[in-house]
Amino acid sequence: MNVRIINKSRHPLPEYATAGAAGMDLRAQLDEPVTLAPLERALVPTGLFLEIPQGFEAQVRPRSGLAAKNGVTVLNSPGTIDADYRGEVKVILVNLSNQAFTINDGERIAQLVVAAHAKVEWQPADELAGSERGSGGFGHTGK
Predict the structure, then answer these.
(1) How far apart are CA 117 and CA 23, in angstroms?
(2) Torsion angle, CA of 74/85/16/115, rounded to 10 degrees?
(3) Does 129 fall in a domain?
(4) How many CA atoms lie within 13 A of 9 on its CB side?
(5) How far is CA 133 from the centre of its chain?
(6) Do the Cβ atoms of 5 and 52 come closer than 8 Å?
(7) What are the φ/ψ torsions at residue 66 (nearest 5 degrees)?
(8) Mean confidence (pLDDT) of the chain
(9) Which of 2, 85, 120, 136 has the most CB atoms within 10 Å of its CB?
(10) Is 59 part of a structural domain of the chain?
């Protein structure tokens, strides 16, 4: 799939790190480092502008290494970039650790996955078909 992109950053375009990768790393586009105190969040620019085809979305997801090693994650995970959005891609990062974390220019801060999605048309009903699960939720199957 071809996706039109404008790169106003100083960094290369996102790319797949391996042949089997689903996501591409997004890099911070910063004029100066940003330090997140514990439980602090920031909107981090990437310098990228996308034209996602209709029927698709771009999902902004956490990088597992950043989350596991530093407790830094994407707050609204996954963040959705709609096909009709043309603004700069920015990432809402939050520091869930008990130590300050500094984000530097060019640092890989999140990953981007482009995925197809369906459009629904609601069909009002008086009842729903039964299922094995029924209305059980939020831990109803045990540990």
Answers:
(1) 16
(2) 90
(3) no
(4) 23
(5) 30
(6) no
(7) -65, -40
(8) 95
(9) 85
(10) yes
Predicted confidence (pLDDT) per residue in 64-100, tens digit: 999 999 999 999 999 999 999 999 999 999 999 999 9
- CA-wise closest residue to 92 among 129, 48, 41, 135: 41
Range of the domain at 71: 4-9+22-116
Q: How far apart are CA 94 and CA 99, in angstroms?
A: 12
d(CA 28, CA 21): 20
Q: What is the pTM of this model?
A: 0.90
The structure tokens listed for 70 are 């530093």
Count of domains for the chain: 1
> Rounded to 5 degrees, what are φ and ψ at 68?
-70, -40
Q: Which CATH number covers residue 32?
A: 2.70.40.10
